[in-house]
Amino acid sequence: MTTSGTFHAYRAGVGLLTAARFPSGTVGEAQHWEWGVVMKHVKLGGLDVGRIGLGAMGMSHGYTGFGTDDAESVRAIHRALDLGVTLIDTAEIYGPYTNEELLGRALAGRRDGVVLATKFGLVSHAGGGPGHPDSSPANIRTAVEGSLKRLGTDHIDLYYQHRVDPQVPIEETVGALAELVAEGKVGAIGLSEAGPDTIRRAHAVHPVAAVQSEYSLWTRGIEEKILPVLRELGIGLVPFSPLGRGFLTGMVRSREQFAEDDWRRTSPRFSGENFDRNLAIADEVQAVAADADATAAQVALAWLLAQGDDVAPIPGTKRVARVEENTAADALTLTADQLDRLSALPSAAGDTHAENDRRLLER
Ligand SMILES: NC(=O)c1ccc[n+]([C@@H]2O[C@H](COP(=O)([O-])OP(=O)(O)OC[C@H]3O[C@@H](n4cnc5c(N)ncnc54)[C@H](OP(=O)(O)O)[C@@H]3O)[C@@H](O)[C@H]2O)c1
């Protein structure tokens, strides 16, 4: 256990940490100071962000089986901002649309300093609607106007293609995004679950600031071929589902915890034998957490943060208390031994996505 002296204070209360860890006057220029709280910042391409972001999807989409609580979600967003989170992640498909609307309400009057990220490409506005990939320039034009309106803003800081569209050359998609950057509607562009060739081709048209892909202790497929390309090109990595969609926190012990319409019921790794085998992974994360005097969620995030200064995970939660817990991982430095134990974990049994959802993943 390396950090427990300072880290324990953070677990007990964020304000205490500041006093314990950063005496006044020691805040570096790469850090953010607000309400007495510091979070380390990293660069995604040229984009400066607090290194722990907030994924808003589950507030209105995917994991909502037990109901949504917009008032608590808004409080969670505000708490995140108070704790130094800047990167907030949504997409037009979340809901669809309702998640962007929620963020628009939450960020009214608090837009400054937020790095607002959203995604297009999984709603075909002239075609089949939600669930139909469409990254054509015409669809992007329609999508961006809708997102700007719902988010209540005149610019999107980071605009991602949600999935690579096999029907549209990436050069055309990025060409359209470059026009939006030139017009000031978009600050920086990103890709999600794109493969190495697509990333290179996109970056040759316009600099890509970030690639957002699933990456966590039990989903490490990007390490071999994608991460090296990001590093070569100076593109940041935004790991999504960094807590393994809740599993790595140790709080998910049975499939029956999920409501009937929870997305995770469709996921092979949350099913049957795979689920039971994967519990050993969550148990080992919990064991390292006990050693580090931290929670399993914090350990899962700290391992990601240890992968480099170009990595900014976006843990998702709709609860204030978990925002506090997750952002506190910024102060947790794992020992070499703890990192080794975590890196040695086996990959999850079973894919995250059912076969149909895997179609658009470039891995
Ligand atoms: N680009 C893509 O295709 C893509 C795909 C998936 C997700 N994303 C983005 O990535 C974000 C995060 O991913 P995710 O939400 O799928 O997965 P995640 O962050 O790995 O896990 C979220 C789940 O963990 C629970 N949780 C959060 N903090 C916890 C804690 N400290 N202790 C116990 N449970 C905790 C949440 O429940 P509560 O909400 O009840 O706390 C939720 O069920 C999303 O919000 C979305 O913005 C992008």
TrEMBL record:
SUPFAM superfamilies: NAD(P)-linked oxidoreductase. Keywords: Oxidoreductase. The keyword Kinase does not apply. CDD domains: AKR_AKR13A_13D (cd19076). Residues 51-344 form the NADP-dependent oxidoreductase domain. Pfam families: Aldo_ket_red (PF00248). The keyword Oxidoreductase applies. PANTHER family: AFLATOXIN B1 ALDEHYDE REDUCTASE, ALDO-KETO REDUCTASE YAKC [NADP(+)]. This is Aldo/keto reductase.
